[in-house]
Design a protein that fits this description.
17 helices; seven-stranded antiparallel β-sheet; two-stranded antiparallel ribbon; globular; alpha+beta
Length: 461
């Protein structure tokens, strides 16, 4: 169990050491050297203002926006959310300056785009320098799978049967593309436009691919951008988060209401249009980058490290075999399928609290009171609710005319080991065209759950 959590964390101050399947054309170390040394903003991977604040051991100042300030004051409790930080209060860094606390560009984005929210300042005083180990949710597949197997009895026989059918249907529909991605990871070079179109068609069958697609594009934009805006943020030690936000909202209608990357699947022509609308100079390299990077990440996150990527095939494979060959992929698929079950509101705490407890235990042993999103240290950072060796204070924030934040009223509330209630709204999952035009995916009618997120006595996701 501990090895799985170690595998799901990345420390960018150390050489890449995670085991990976055999026969990959490029290693994690190869990619790390390229990203850090051959991209305009790669130096920020190790030397961002956030990572320097972590290793300093000094108090950290973090921004959180909430719609639930009244509930927090009334209950005296702070609950945390799941998502990319597993079980932490989602925040962004604040830089302490003479004029006040300057929001990270991610925080500035959140304040500008989330109306009717209250900004809060948190001061976290750690007991020691904090390791720069970030949790990478793309590597959580084996943990999702193990959690499901442990609590499988919580599902009815009919729900388990439905889950198996959904997995097999999705895998069969996307099998040709999944094999293409593995062949590309081992050195084959599919034409990039064709690869992107096949990827886009496969996402509805295997929604995890939409998450990979989006994270690869985000990485490409943040590390390669050379706009004046990006350069200004880089001078402050920050990667530019506005880039991928613009892409997401331009690509998917209604993304501002629910940030659901299962709906992110632009085809090649649309991808070119999206990048051209954000930074035209990055258009020529984007498709080839996605082909190479996504293929590599898919092999590493989907397959068990004991496998040989050159010999694995998804076409014709049965589900029982794939549980052993590709536990990362099966776990990610199970995690997302359960989210769309009609009873997910009841199942949510059973499965997500189990993972959060393990993450909290890991962070306590590693000395991590402020876990961050480790796909890249881009500024998504959280507060671990039951870290026993740090002090946390909170205030509502007021913003001055120059944009700096200042503590206003102190908030007397304590972190509790509880997850704010959350469930995904129903997805319109009728018959969808997949990677193989001869196959369609019919995942049933939408459930009757209300299409919103809810919070009880705390902070919503």
């Amino acid at each position: 169990m501990r090895d799985e959590w170690e595998h799901a964390h990345t420390d960018y101050t150390r050489p890449a050491q995670r085991p990976a399947p055999a026969s990959l054309a490029e290693s994690e170390g190869d990619w790390r050297r390229y990203l850090e040394g051959s991209t305009p903003n790669g130096w920020l991977i190790q030397h961002s203002a956030m990572t320097e604040a972590l290793v300093s051991g000094r108090p950290m100042y973090l921004l959180h926006t909430t719609k639930d300030i009244t509930a927090i004051r009334t209950s005296g409790e702070l609950h945390v959310s799941t998502g990319c930080l597993v079980g932490a209060l989602y925040c962004s860094p604040l830089a302490r300056q003479r004029e006040g606390l300057r929001p990270h560009n991610l925080g500035a984005y959140l304040m500008q785009t989330k109306p009717n929210t209250t900004s809060m300042i948190f001061e976290v005083t750690p007991d020691a320098p904090i390791p720069t180990k970030g949790v990478d949710y793309l590597h959580l597949g084996t943990i999702h799978l193990r959690t499901y197997l442990r609590y499988q009895s919580f599902l009815t026989p009919a729900e388990n049967d439905r889950l198996d059918r959904a997995l097999m249907t999705g895998l069969r529909a996307a099998a040709a593309f999944l094999d293409t991605a593995l062949r590309n990871a081992t050195g084959r070079a599919t034409a990039a436009p064709e690869f992107i179109d096949q990827l886009a068609a496969a996402v509805p069958a295997v929604p995890f691919l939409g998450y990979l697609y989006f994270e690869v594009l985000s990485e490409y934009l943040m590390l390669h951008s050379a706009t004046p805006e990006t350069k200004t943020y880089a001078q402050a030690g920050e990667l530019n988060n506005w880039l991928y936000k613009r892409i997401a909202f331009a690509a998917v209608d209604g993304m501002h209401q629910l940030f659901d990357l299962a709906r992110f699947h632009p085809r090649h022509q649309r991808l070119v249009q999206l990048i051209d609308g954000v930074e035209p100079s990055l258009v020529p390299g984007v498709a080839e980058y996605v082909r190479r990077r996504l293929s590599h990440l898919f092999a590493r996150t989907a397959l068990h490290p004991s496998q040989d990527a050159a010999s694995v095939t998804f076409q014709g494979a049965d589900l029982s075999m794939l549980w052993h060959v590709a536990p990362g992929l099966i776990g990610q698929m199970i995690f997302r399928e359960i989210r769309y079950m009609p009873r997910y509101q009841q199942l949510y705490h059973c499965f997500e609290k189990a993972k959060a407890l393990e993450a909290w235990d890991y962070w306590n042993h590693e000395g991590i009171p402020t876990p961050f999103n480790g796909i890249l240290p881009k500024g998504e950072i959280g507060i671990h609710p039951i870290y026993p060796r740090s002090a946390v204070r909170a205030w509502t924030a007021k913003q001055d005319s120059k944009g700096s934040l200042h503590p206003a009223q102190e908030v007397t509330a304590i972190f509790t080991p509880h997850l704010a209630s959350w469930w995904a709204p129903p997805r319109h999952r009728g018959r969808k065209t997949t990677a193989d035009p001869r196959i369609t995916v019919d995942r049933g009618a939408p459930s009757s759950l209300p299409a919103h997120r809810s919070s009880i006595k705390g902070i919503s996701a």
